[in-house]
Every structure is written in C-alpha cells, then in structure tokens.
Amino acid sequence: MTSTAAPALAASMRDGYKDYGHGEAAVRALDGVSVEIARSEFTAIMGPSGSGKSTLLHTLAGLDKLSAGSSTIADTTITQLSEAQVTEVRRKYIGFVFQSFNLIPSLTARENITLPLDISGTKVDKAWFDEIIGILGLGQRLTHLPAELSGGQQQRVAVARALVSRPEIIFADEPSGNLDSRSGAELLSFMQRAVKEFGQTIVMVTHDPTAASYADRILFLEDGQIVDEMREPTAERVLDRMKQMGH
Amino acid sequence: MFRLALKSVRHNPKRLILTAIAVALGVSLVAATQTFTNALSSGFSDLFDDIYAGTDIVVEVDPDATDADEGGDPFAAGDGIFTPEDVDAIAAIGGVDIASGGIQVNGSVLAADAGEGDADPFASAGGAPSQIFNFYGDPRVDQSTVVDGRGVEADGEIVLDLDSVENLGYTFGDSVRIATEAGVDEFELVGSVRFGEDNSLQGATLAYISDADAHRLADDPNYASVSVIAQEGEDLEALAARVGDVLPEGTRALTGEQKAAEQTEALDDVLQYVDIFAIAFAFISLFVGAYIIVNTFRIIVTQRTREFGLMRAIGVTGRQIRSMILLEALVVAVIASTLGVVLGYLLALAFSWLVSLFAGDIFGTMTLPLEAVGWAYAMGGAVTLVSALLPAIHASRVAPMEALRESATGGKKPLKVRNIVGGALALVGAVLVTVGLYAGFDKPYIWVGAGAAMLVIGVTLLAAQLLSPLAGGMRRPLSAWFRVDGKLAANNIQREPRRSANTAAALMIGVMLLALVATFTESLKSVVTEEFASTKADLFATGAQGPVPDGAIDVIEGVDGVAFTSSVGFGTATYDDMDYAVAVLDPATAAETYEYATDPAIGELSDGEVYINPTIEALGVEVGDEVTLKGPEGEATLDVTGLYLNENEGAFFVTFPTGEDLFGDVQVVQTLIVFDDSVVADDADTTDGGVTFSEQQEAIQDALSEDFPLVILAQPGQLEQLANQFIDLLLGIISALLGSALVIALLGVANTLLLSVTERTREIGLLRAVGMKRRSVWRMITIESMIMAVFGTLLGMVLGVALGSALVLSLADFGFNGVTIPWVWLIVYTVLAAIAGVVAAIWPAYRASRLDILQAIAADG
How far apart are the CA of B37 and the nearest CA of chain A, in angstroms? Predict the structure, then answer.
C-alpha cells in the first residue's frame, strides 16, 4: 500500500467496466467510466434507475470488484488487492452511510459511532468525537439503541460513524432517501458542513435533485457512462438537466 | 395449500437440512437397534434349529414345575434327574427308535499350552466356555457329525469340534486336558466333529467323551435330559405325549421343533429389553431433536412474518397458514424418517460387522423389520409435528398489518410468563423426583422420569432469564479479549434469549444425563474402592468357570506362608415362598478378612443362627425371631441374631455347617487368602530371608496349576481395577448411546446460528462494509456458539450432578456411602463443550464470513 502524505485525489477510476451475469443475460452496469474525486469536495452522482450509479459507488468503495479497469483510494490501487487487503483499506480510508439499516441493532448509538475504531482497535479521539456529536446534536442520544431513535437521528448517527475515524472519503448511498424533507435537509446540511469545515471528502449517490444540489459537483450517469458534469448546482438546474435525460 | 407448503420447503431447503438430520439421527437409532436385534434373533433362532434339528423329542426338566432347586446353584449344568432306568423305559415305548440320555460336564477344555507362563491370570481363564457332553455316536442325537478321525469308542477318549482342535492347538493322538471341580483329567484326542451344518458355536469349545467318563466327571449317575429319535412316520406330538406318560414328576417331553421355538422365544424376550433400552435412548435423542425443531420453525416463522402478513392481507385465513406450516413439518418428517431408516439400517450393518469381528458370525440375515419402519415413521412424524405446533399457532396469529411493518423482528415480549411457567415446572419436577426417590412408591421410575422431564423443560424456560444477565456480564470480558467481535457475540446471545436458551438446553439434556451417569458410576467406584480397602485379605481366589473346588482350598492352605483362608459361598433358599440369596461364611475368619457391616460383628454368628439384611427386615422380621429357610437339600429353622446393614451381597447370612444343612455341598464363590508375616512387600529387602508378595502369589499359582488350573488368584488391587474397568465400560456404553443426543444438540447449535446468520445478513454486511474482516466475523459466530455450548453444558452438569446425587443418596441402603462428584469428567465435558462450540460454528461462521457484502446490504427486510 503506497500513499503519499497529501494526495490530490481521494479516489479515482480509470476505464471501469462492470458486467453482471454471463452470456445472454449479461448486463453492463459500467461501460468505461473514468472519474476523479478531488479531496475536500462533495460529489453527487445522479442518474435514472439502472444507470449504474450505485454500481459506481460500490466499485469505487471496494465493496464490489470491477470487471475491467482500475480504481484507487487515497492513491492505493485497490483493484489489485486481495479481499482482506481491501477490507483493510475500507477500514482505514472509507466511511459509509447507507439509505437504511446503517446501524447494528444491538449496539448503542455511541457504540455504533465508534464501531470502525473498535474494529481496528484505534483509540477514539475524544475531542473530535465530542465535536461531531455536538454538530450533529446527538449528545442526548448516545446511550440509546437504534430502535429508540428516529429515522433522522439514525442517519445522523451513521454520518457520525463515518466521520469519527476521519476517513479519506465517505461514500453515501441515498442517505436522505428514507427521510422526510426536513430531516433530509438537516442531514445534507451536516454533510455539507463536514466538507466545508473539516475538509471531508464525500461521494453521494442520489436521484433527488434537491439532495444533489447540496453537492459541489454533480456527475450525471446514464447507461453506465458519465454523460455530463455540473458545478455549483442548484435544484432547478439539476432538475432541468434530469429532464433532458428523459426523467 | 399442500403445494404451497411443498414449494416453501423446496424454495428454502437449507434452513430445514439440519432439522431433518436431527430427526433422522434420532430415528436411525430406533431402526438400527431393531434391525440389529432382529438379526441377532434370527441368528440364534438358526442356532437353536440346528441344535434340535435331529432330535425328534426332547425330554427334560419341566421349567414350570418350580422347586427349591431351580436357579439355586448358579454354576449347575442341570442336575441329573433321569436315571438310566428312566431312559430304558422311554426306549421301550412303541414308536421310539432311539432314546439316549444326555449329560453335560461342568468343566473346561484347556488349551494345549495352558498354564505355561501365563502372566495374566484373567487372560488364560477367560474366553469362551466349554461344552462337554457324553458321546452317543448318532449325529441325530449328538447334533454333531464326525469329520476327521473317529468318534469316541472307549473311555479315556475325546473328540473336539474342528475349530477348537485348531484353536486350542491339538493334533490327533494328543492328550487333551479337561479341568473340572475335582481336578484335571486327560483324554486322548481321537477325532474332530462338526456341530450342525457349519459348526457355528459362537466361539465355544464343544467336546464329547464317553458316557462313563461323563458320569464320572459330573459326579452324577443320572442324565439331565433324554433325546428321543422316533421311528419313521411316527406322529411326533402323539409320541411326545406317550413319552410324557412314563416320565418322573416335574419333567416333560416336547418335540425338537417346539423346543427350538421355545428357546427362540425366550431369547426374543431378552432382546425385547434391548429394544426398549435403545428406544429409550432414541426418545432422549428425539426429545433433544424436538428442541431444535421448535427453534427452527420459530425462527422461520419470524423470518416469514411479512410473508404471512401479506398472505393474511390477501385473504388467507390463520388456520390455513397453520396447516401450511404443519404440512411443511410433515414433509420434513417424512423425508427425515426415511433418511433415518436408511441410516439406521446401515448403522446396524456396520455394528454387526464390528461385532462379528470379535464374536464370530452370530447374525442371521440383516433385514429391516416392518416394525422398525413403523416405529421410525411414527416417532419421527410425531416429534416433528408436535414440535412444529406451537410455532404454527404463532404464525396463524400474524396480523395482516405485519406485512407493512419495516422490521421483521418485531417487539420483544418480556420473559415473565416464561419464567413463571418454567419456575413452576422446575419446582413440580424437583418435587416429583424427590418423591419418586424417597417415598418408596411402586414403580418409582415413573415419578422420577416424569419429574426429570418437567425439571428439564422448566430449567429450559428459566435458562432464558439466566442467560440474559450472564451474556450481559460476559460482555465486558469478551469485549476486552476479543474487542468488537466478543461484544457483538454477547449482544447477539442477549438479544434472543429464548432462542439461545432453547439451543443451549438441547445440549443441556445430553450433558445432564452424562453427568448423572458419571456421578453414579464414580460414587459406585468409591464403594468398590472402600470395599477393597476394608479387606485384610492378601489374595482373592475365584473359579474361572465355576466355584472354587474344595480341593483347591486345601492346596492353598498347604502352601508355606499362607496364614489362613476364609471362603464365602452362595446358595438360594426359599423363605416365605420367595427365593433369596443366602451367603455362607466362616464367622471366625470372615471377621479377620473383611469389615462386614453387621450389627453385632460378623464373628458373633454361630451355627443355627442367621443375620438378615434390610430386605428381610422390611418383611417384618426382627432380631430374636425365628426364620425357616428351605434349601435344595433340606430345611433349617434359624434364630435371627443380627443385622447385615447393606442390601447387596445376600439376604441371609449363615455359617458353613448351617449352609450344608440347606445346600449340601456349599459352592464356594470366593476364597480370601491371608499371608503370614514371612511374606513381605515386593519392594522390601529379602536378603535375610522372607518371600515377596509376588513370589508368594506365584508359589500358590504353581501349587494349583497341577490339578486346579481354573482357579484364579488376584490381588485386591487387581480386582478393584477390574471392577472399576467394568464400571467405566458401563459409563462408556451409556455415553456412546447418549452420543447421538449430543450430536443432535450440536446440530441444534449450528442450526440456530445458521438461521440467525441468515436473519442478520444485513448486519453482517454492514460490519463487513465498515471494515470487519472475515476472520473477525468467523470469530464472532464462534464465540456465540461457544457461549451457548458451554452454558448448556454447565446447566446440564449442575442438573446431572444434582439428580445423580439424589439417586445415589436414595440408594444408601445398597452400600452407597456418599456422593463422589466426578470432577475430572466435569472438566472434560466443559472442555469438550467449548471445542464442540467451535466445531458447531464452522458452517454458520463460514457462511457468515463469505456473505457477499453488496447482497447483504441490499438484502430485503
């Protein structure tokens, strides 16, 4: 694993191909994707269902393997690594926020947040932990089990967990997909703050133009290819662009 | 509905595989035993047919005409009852071709090299017994055909069965030695015979000597039986009736066919107990299996809650859902039972092959009895359906709204009801066991059995309450040792206390029985140890195949260095129309050789007096009363002057002169030998004279070898070892039979974990996504498994030791003087449980660690 002190790119993919199934039933989810994720940037990946946006996220994060092409995390080419090594990379450099089922039901909010650190046996940075908790407003909820938290609180705990180990990059898969609009807006603002104030890198997949408008940069995906890119988006512009794609 | 059930089984067969295996294992035990005993029965039935094939009519003592003689002498070959005149009278009946008296000699054919440097007295004296008969010369009477050489034609000659000639190392013309109570006789080997069709003697040695020699060795002028060959074309049953008319009282005549059938029937009666014994263990296995079935169906029902909710929403009734699950259970039961029957048959084949390696070919054709198939399906079906009933009812109560709920796990019900029911059951069960053990009711085992079952179920229910704080308490140390893996494992146990407790309880049952048996056998060993510790005898002499001959005792007493001997004899006498064992001893020497638990001391016993044990005391006999005992040789009215405090050994204790009044010549079963001071320990210095212990033992053995080679000498330590080996064997056999219950319990652990892994797919996926390695996932599942296994084992040990102690204490009358807790075994069980936990976790852990992260995250519900 080679990693320089301050890599310019948090993650990248070069000529990524991903096929599911074989022969007649084969489906090409990624069709030659090349993408670079800059550090301290909030990137959103948008596209209609079946465009391959989730596949792109999963292969970038090392949860899934590319059929062809290469990808890097923090300058480490993960496409050559073994399963155990990829797990190591995920643990060290990546945080995750999923749409639902983000938390281990038997662990308290605090335990869920520190889970990645516990797994790697790293000591929790108390000041950093308190800062995150303060920003996310979870101070009163730390001893609660996930079942005792609201949907918005659960997602905030998930974000806190992703932030606590100061990962190179956070991947979020429709983080606000299951939330009402207020909680969703709150959550996305937190993520935006994390990028702006702490220089956190975040890649988020969404199909919601409003959610995407919180990002610094939007990649539009269609049929497994990146078809467009937008900087400084607003919800209206995103919506217009989506309409062009036929959605 | 049936199609739906079938589809459900087919759609997800994996979750039912282990359940089916559990049922199949239990069922296979039934099928295996019945196949095995069936083959054994048909094997012996063939043997009996062989024995009586040639004989048209058998004349013998009528077993129904009981007199005091019957069963009185454990070593008797059947006392002669037919005089030569009786035989002549039978021969004179019209239609009788041949009537030949048969007599059997109590003795042993020695191997050619016997007595030459046998280090182990048990090895040379053990082995298959000898059957020595008088030779007639007609295969129909002898049941044997001369193969080589010739038959016995004169006194002093002998023929052996062809296998024994080879096995014992003789050639024709050799002198064959036969040891009897009276000493050793030599005969010239003149031929070999084949018994029946293929000389299947189950390993015994068969020998024929002349009529006169047989009478001489048996010390009996009469015959024990008469074989009759009818003239051609006679109606055998009519002839048997005519023969019966001339017979002395208490004897009977029946056809050879009837006799063979009778023998087979008697054997089948015995084998029936073997079947019942094995079925009891099969029940235990299936009881354990029931736990697994309940657990499996519960988990499946929980996992399919949304499916059932959806079905209810589209109009399926609760009753239909219930039937569907029961149908699923039925499908599993049928498949599992079929598998069990096949497995059982193979098991019986394997086991009979193993047995025939040691015991020779004693089996008939291996057929699967119809009865076994019936039992298998009945037991397999009943257990599966009954176990699935509760989960099925549970499923039928799923509300349509459940379909819409986000999480399938649902709310947690408190354990209160479970605890109350469990506590009540455990309490009632404990009371029943106590009552059964101490109250002295008829058939106490019913009370104890029912009580134990209730106790087990009660403790199972309570275990959930116990397990929850336990897992909570273990969270900290586990987190410390294994970090998150350990913490999560403890959490998972705590999250589903019912499921974990049921799983652990399945193991608990098997371990409980193991611990019970171990407690019992270890306590028994203590009794043995104490018995031998309290003896002052230096050597024990016993007969290998009969009593210790009087002549042998004289020889022993004649050896230098022997201070004195004390012999113990046994006989059976009738008191108050019941047969009891009577111990005959020499009070003066008995008190010097063994600490008899009597009041007053055994040395006080005089001729014409008797000590009684608690069994007789219970009949209302007291010290100062008179009792009249009737033995085969006479009656004696004796004064009761003392009590024997244990129930074992004998009911009455008398002196040798009194014993001779009852039994004539008393059969000595054991002679205790005490050395004088000239004999010193093996490690003592013998330079200035003196004989070591081993040398002295050798000297006595040498003195005996001439005329009494069948007398075995053993040191108390050797005997203790032998007794302990026997007890260990008992423990081993029961442990082996419980093995299937334990294997099933472990399958249960694996099964529960497997289903719980399926249920936690997303959770495990998430852990993997945030960086948990496969190894850690594996370890997490393994820790869960070990907690359940060790918890079940500990519970089982506590229950087993408690029940075993209760059993031992209730048997204090039989000489148990305290409970010995089998610590070594308990430690062994705990270690094995931990290892078993690791093994049981292999498959579930493999599955969990190989879960595709993406699928796990995307998994539905």
Answer: 53
